[in-house]
Design goal:
The complex is a heterotrimer of chains A (324), B (343) and C (291). Chain A is of the alpha/beta class. Chain A contains 9 helices and 12 strands. The longest helix of chain A has 18 residues. The relative contact order of chain A is 0.14. Chain C is mainly alpha-helical. The longest helix of chain C has 37 residues. Classes of the chains: A alpha/beta (324), B alpha/beta (343), C mainly alpha (291). At the A-C interface, helix 2, strand 6 and helix 3 of A face helix 9 and helix 10 of C. Chain A: It holds the Pfam family oligo_HPY.
Chain lengths: 324, 343, 291
């Protein structure tokens, strides 16, 4: 088994809810509530869940774009949470992020050369402007953009091209880990496949490790080696992707899989349609957080929180049913 | 089909006159919707799928937009010729519409009840008390728990899925014959999307109305449609019943769309990605509009726009070289260059 | 590129073109002041020469194109050299107060928390004092003179910019491109200058344009109230001050001394109008909703 490049232990991120004139903290949004997982070197771990489940917050907390409330994040054995500002800046070369929105994630007042060249400037990776532009050109070509685009501004590009620029920027520092936060969900269907293929090619070429965050299970299944499913700030299941799709253990994973409309009209599936909405993370349900919507809930579910543990060969899940 | 069409769109052209030039958002579109069926319209952003529906509702903002040519026959009357006043009687009454973002289509300062009641009193001419009773009944029908209570709540108190249910209740409150749904589940989570799609399917059966489902998601299309029109760059490129379309896509664009999405039950190493992106509507290519991205394009494709032709038994395709695609499919080859990194 | 496009659109718009032409005219007057109205001695060029010692204003005549004001001060000379004063007041006051505002607004919004609280309460205190009264009092304390007027105007003129800048920065700092830059390991200085200020400077610029005119009016008002430039200094406000006792005209003719009011009045009006026109046009150009 390969080494763990990233290890997340008991990570928590609470956002305070403030109210009143004195802005007192009256409650907490428990966006990420005690999750642990590891990403092996060279693999792609998919992190799926519905909006508000805390998957994006997890990604940003790992990179310390948000400060964690508790827990540790080990990158190559070093606890990222304990690094000072200078060490943090240095380690950022190794962990990069690709954002969802290809419009908001590029500074509209910078040229493509400056956007992709920024990481080189920050970490002094080029001796002079000429060398920098040479490198930018090379990176752009690697993501499928020609050098003729270098002096253009982001608004002159289509969504797919912008996302390539975002990928190029992340690649410029030659990172080991890339957190891809819904990198294709804002793109047109026909362009999604281009970006997915690009990410796969780059992984092979540079030996990258991905944490691929998305709400679309079919894309996650395509690109990932292992998949983690998140619900209301908690991990509910984590396993090899084939195992997850063949043998989903958690009732939430089962209903999520059955809810996806498939592009095949002959397959009218027997749907497990979940009742109700995702509850608010400010006041999550007691016991198992999924119990109010769970079709299989029984006595212990509203009372006791199920433990996230291994049920055979790297298949983790958190459900009381499995202990019966 | 032998039945009489409920809506018949003929050669519809809707253009937008902007500072940069004429945007031909919808450029000669034909289709029919029959009573009680669901017509799916699928395409990517900018293909004109939303503008066609807005044209039927006559809600195209003018200026800059204008219905340039064509007919929209609804039960024998041409909607393009009606006055605004006559059109208002049809909107909400005979034809209703629901949108992608239910928050912006509900007025935040009125309760959801007020908004449904207004629609009912306006079109049905019943008293307020009766309208309120009907509103509560509608909320119940769309599966909103505790409708007597929810009727007095404001839109922001409801979740996204609940708001979309309210929108559906409002749209159905006057028993329309056609419901236009413009990406109704795109803003929702998959588990909520499944709820809404199921609701729409069951309501369609009980109300016997026709649905025009506009979406970019082939999965949703497969789920709900009877027949499908695939749009690209302001035109219908393929038009047939849903089973035929998914069994035997004949247009290279449809083929590309289907193979660019990963499937849950099938493992492929690489997706077939259609290269490039949708051309700007200000600057469509000569000939077939898909020729900039089509791996089969050759000769004639660059000069003459192909017509929407019946290939066999009602399977309409707009392509000069669809037979060529057939041969490739028979050989089991991929047609799209599958390099993510374009050198 | 971007600037070029803005400029072409400014010229295309009739109103802003009008504004630009007037500003250009004033710039030319200011630049060529020594040729239009040669000073008697270059050291005190801002000293308005007198045609004699007569108190009553005299109408335009040979050698005194715009006539003479109270105390026989040459109106033409005062107007020409006063143009320089107007630009000096405008540029220095607006420039410095905008700079303060930008610094305070940016620091407040970027660092937030206690720093934000501290700066914003100071801003509130300054904003609660009526601008003109505060400027008058401070000028009186510091003593008469144009420099002190400018100090007073800067002291009480930065808060609007600070608040505008703060709200802009608050918006931009959560944009994903800023997050991306943090993730790349960029320093605070780099993020503030390259990403934040570059993206929120335009509204501040527009506001600065609008304030150019109003600052000159306020400076004139202070002169008119007697706390501005010393007597005889070439300044438009001063020219209006000279007219104070003659506005109502003389016996039998209400318009007898029109030139003492109309000439400096028109200049001040045109000056501030043109900046506002340009500012307005700028806003229209940069507002994406109107495009």
């Amino acid at each position: 088994m390969a080494e763990n490049l990233l290890e997340v232990n008991n990570l928590k991120k609470y956002f305070p809810v403030k109210a009143g004139i004195f802005k007192r903290t009256v409650a907490h949004v428990k966006a990420v509530d005690d999750i642990s997982f590891a990403v092996e070197e060279g693999e792609t771990l998919g992190l799926v869940g519905e909006s508000g489940c805390g998957k994006s917050t997890t990604g940003r907390t790992i990179l310390r774009l948000l400060e964690a409330t508790a827990g540790e994040v080990l990158f190559e054995g070093k606890n990222v949470m304990e690094l000072d500002k200078k060490e943090m800046r240095a380690i950022r070369r190794d962990m990069q992020i690709i954002f969802q929105d290809p419009y908001a994630s590029l500074n509209p007042r910078m040229t493509v050369a400056d956007i992709v060249g920024e990481p080189l400037d920050i970490h002094n990776l080029a001796k002079n402007k000429k060398e920098r532009n040479e490198k930018v050109k090379e990176i752009l070509e690697n993501v499928g953009l020609g050098a003729e685009y270098m002096n253009r501004y982001p608004h002159e590009f289509s969504g797919g091209q912008r996302q390539r620029i975002g990928v190029a920027r992340a690649l410029a520092v030659d990172p080991k880990l890339i957190i891809a936060d819904e990198p294709v969900s804002a793109l047109d269907v026909s362009v999604q496949a281009q970006v997915v293929n690009l990410l796969q090619d780059l992984q092979k070429e540079y030996g990258l490790t991905y944490l691929f965050i998305a709400h679309d299970l079919s894309v996650v299944k395509h690109i990932s080696d292992r998949v983690a499913v998140m619900y209301l700030g908690k991990l509910v299941e984590l396993t090899d992707k084939k195992e997850l799709f063949r043998n989903p253990m958690h009732p939430y994973t089962q209903s999520l899989l059955s809810a996806i409309p498939e592009a095949d009209p002959k397959k009218k599936k027997d749907r497990i349609i979940l009742e109700g909405d995702v509850p608010s993370p400010v006041d999550p349900p007691s016991g198992c957080r999924f119990h109010p919507r769970c079709p299989k809930a029984f006595e212990p579910c509203p009372v006791k929180e199920p433990e996230f543990k291994e049920y055979g060969d790297g298949h983790f899940a958190a459900c009381h049913l499995l202990d019966q | 089909m032998s039945k009489e069409a409920l809506v018949e769109v003929k050669n519809l052209k809707t253009y937008f006159y902007t500072e940069e030039g004429v945007v031909k958002a919808v450029d000669g579109v034909d289709y029919e919707i029959y009573p009680g069926e669901t017509l799916g319209i699928v395409g990517e952003s900018g293909c004109g799928k939303s503008v066609t529906s807005l044209s039927i509702m006559r809600l195209v903002e003018s200026p800059p937009g204008r219905i340039e040519a064509g007919e929209i026959n609804f039960k024998g009357t041409d909607l393009t010729k009606l006055s605004e006043k006559e059109m208002r009687k049809i909107r909400g009454n005979d034809i209703s519409m629901i949108f992608q973002e239910p928050m912006t289509s509900l007025n935040p300062v009125y309760t959801v009840g007020d908004q449904i009641i207004e629609a009912i009193t306006l079109h049905k001419g019943v008293k307020r008390k009766e309208a309120r009773r009907q509103a509560i009944e509608m909320l119940q029908k769309v599966g909103i728990p505790l409708p007597e209570q929810r009727v007095d709540e404001y839109p922001h108190q409801l979740s996204g899925g609940m708001r979309q249910r309210v929108m559906i209740a409002m749209a159905l409150s006057c028993d329309p014959q056609l419901l236009i749904a413009d990406e109704p589940t795109t803003a929702l989570d998959v588990t909520i999307q499944a709820q809404i799609l199921e609701l729409m399917n069951s309501l369609k059966e009980s109300y016997g109305m026709a649905i025009m489902m506009i979406t970019h998601d082939l999965g949703v299309i497969a789920e709900v449609s009877d027949r499908v029109a695939v749009m690209y760059a302001g035109k219908v490129v393929e038009y047939t019943d849903v089973d035929t379309l998914f069994d035997d896509p004949k247009h290279p664009y449809t083929w590309g769309l289907m193979n660019s999405i990963p499937k849950l039950d099938k493992d492929v190493d690489r997706l077939e990605a259609i290269p490039g992106s949708v051309p700007s509507p200000l600057n469509f290519p000569e000939g077939c509009k898909f020729n900039t991205r089509c791996p089969l394009a050759k000769g004639k494709c660059y000069d003459v726009e192909p017509p929407l032709e019946d290939t066999d038994g009602g399977h309409m395709v707009r392509c000069w070289r669809y037979e060529h695609l057939e041969e490739i499919k028979k050989r089991g080859e991929r047609i799209y260059e599958d390099r993510g990194v374009q050198k | 590129m971007e600037w070029k496009e803005i400029l072409t659109r400014l010229i295309k718009n009739k109103l802003s073109l009008f504004g630009l032409i007037i500003i250009l005219f004033f710039v030319l007057v200011a630049v060529f002041a020594p040729y239009l109205a040669p000073p008697r001695s270059p050291e005190d060029a801002y000293e308005i020469p007198r045609a004699g010692w007569q108190v009553e204003p005299q109408p335009p005549r040979e050698g005194y194109l715009f006539g003479t004001a109270q105390g026989s001060y040459d109106i033409f000379y005062g107007m020409v050299w006063g143009t320089r004063t107007a630009f000096r007041i405008g540029v220095i006051v607006v420039g410095l107060s905008s700079l303060f505002g930008i610094i305070i607004g940016t620091l407040s919004a970027y660092y937030g928390g206690i720093i934000d609280e501290f700066f914003m309460r100071i801003t509130d205190v300054f904003m609660s004092i009526p601008f003109l009264v505060a400027a008058m009092v401070l000028t009186t304390i510091l003593g008469k003179g144009l420099d002190n007027v400018m100090i007073a105007l800067v002291t009480f003129g930065w808060m609007g910019t600070a608040r505008l800048m703060r709200s802009q920065v608050l918006e931009i700092k959560n944009e994903e491109f800023v997050q991306a830059s943090i993730a790349l390991g960029a320093s605070d200085t780099r993020i503030i200058f390259k990403h934040i200020i570059a993206n929120c400077i335009f509204p501040v610029l527009i506001q600065a344009f609008m304030r150019m005119g109003s600052m000159v009016i306020t400076a004139s008002a202070l002169s008119f109230l007697g706390v501005g430039a010393p007597e005889g200094y070439a300044d438009w406000g001063q020219m209006i001050t000279f007219a104070r006792d003659w506005i109502l005209g003389g016996q039998g003719s209400a318009l007898k001394y029109w030139y003492t009011v109309v000439i400096p009045g028109t200049a001040i009006m045109l000056f501030s109008l043109s900046w506002n026109l340009i500012g307005d046009a700028f806003r229209d150009i940069l507002d994406p909703k109107l495009n």
